[in-house]
């Protein structure tokens, strides 16, 4: 077995941050599967309550996987627990009874559903617990210091693509392509030395359209 990195820095949205071996058929991108720990932000909760910063988002519910039920902030338990597949991902849809949610005095802080009841969707236990731990970890200074390493790498890759067109091989054959990469690296080093000597800061890493949309939704 070949040697690979022990940590992988990615820009977000892993299939679902999960420890290796947890699901019956783990996907290749799951961290830990090959002894690699993904260091990546866990996607934000885009529920109306989370975006508004008010009301009861999913984190306010206690999930009991052993009993297959959820408990809301008012102490009421769910009525149904239905495993499902959404966009190819295993999920669990948890629903509270209309008789429970209808007369609730804080229902407007919980749901705007016309059925007058709350429904939440969570990942299976291994995924849910891994994401909860990852969200807590990414708030620490240690995690943020580790992830900051990625910014420099992304800037270098972006500069290589924009300036030297690294994504395209100009020549046929591995030897000539390798020589192109060497010349590209030399050019980038000279550009960066010139910027450093003359006090010109490098451009910031480009923010993707998807990331900008995510920030807009969370605002």
* Element order: H for helix, E for strand: EEHEEEEHEHHHH
For the termini, the CA-CA separation is: 46 Å
Strand order of the largest sheet: 5-6-7
Strand residue percentage: 5-15%
Mean of pLDDT: 80
Number of domains: 2
Radius of gyration: 23 Å
How many β-strands, per DSSP? Answer: 7
Structural class call reads: alpha+beta
Proportion of residues in helical segments: 25-40%
Quick one: biggest sheet? 3 strands, antiparallel
Count of helical stretches: 6
Uncertain ranges: 13-32
Principal-axis shape: elongated
Features:
single chain; 219 residues; alpha+beta; 2 domains; two-stranded parallel sheet; 37% helix; 14% strand
List the helices and strands and how they pair.
Layout: E1 7-9, E2 37-39, H1 48-52, E3 62-64, E4 69-71, E5 80-86, E6 89-95, H2 98-101, E7 119-122, H3 125-137, H4 141-164, H5 174-197, H6 209-218
Parallel strand pairs: 1-2
Antiparallel strand pairs: 3-4, 5-6, 6-7
Helix pairs in contact: 4-5
Architecture overview:
The chain contains six helices and seven strands; from the N terminus they run E-E-H-E-E-E-E-H-E-H-H-H-H. The protein has 219 residues and is of the alpha+beta class. The chain has two domains: 48-137, no CATH class; 151-218, no CATH class. It has a three-stranded antiparallel sheet, with no helix packed on it. Helix 4 (141-164) crosses helix 5.
């Amino acid at each position: 077995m070949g040697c690979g990195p022990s940590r992988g820095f990615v820009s977000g949205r892993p299939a679902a941050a999960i420890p290796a071996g947890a699901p019956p058929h783990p996907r290749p991108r799951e961290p830990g599967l090959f002894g690699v720990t993904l260091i990546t932000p866990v996607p934000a909760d885009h529920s109306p309550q989370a975006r508004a910063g008010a009301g009861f988002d999913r984190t306010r519910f206690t999930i009991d996987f052993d009993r297959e039920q959820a408990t809301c902030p008012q102490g009421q338990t769910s009525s149904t627990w239905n495993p499902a597949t959404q966009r190819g991902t295993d999920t669990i849809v948890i629903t509270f009874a209309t008789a429970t949610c209808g007369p609730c005095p804080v229902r407007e802080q919980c749901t705007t559903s016309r059925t007058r009841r709350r429904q939440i969707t969570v990942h299976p236990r291994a995924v849910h617990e891994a994401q909860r731990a990852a969200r807590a970890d990414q708030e620490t200074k240690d995690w943020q210091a580790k992830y900051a390493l990625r910014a420099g790498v992304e800037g270098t890759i972006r500069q290589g693509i924009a300036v030297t067109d690294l994504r395209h091989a100009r020549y046929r054959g591995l030897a000539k392509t390798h020589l192109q990469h060497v010349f590209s690296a030399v050019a980038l080093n000279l550009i960066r030395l010139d910027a450093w000597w003359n006090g010109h800061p490098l451009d910031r890493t480009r923010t993707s359209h998807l990331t900008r949309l995510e920030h807009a939704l969370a605002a």
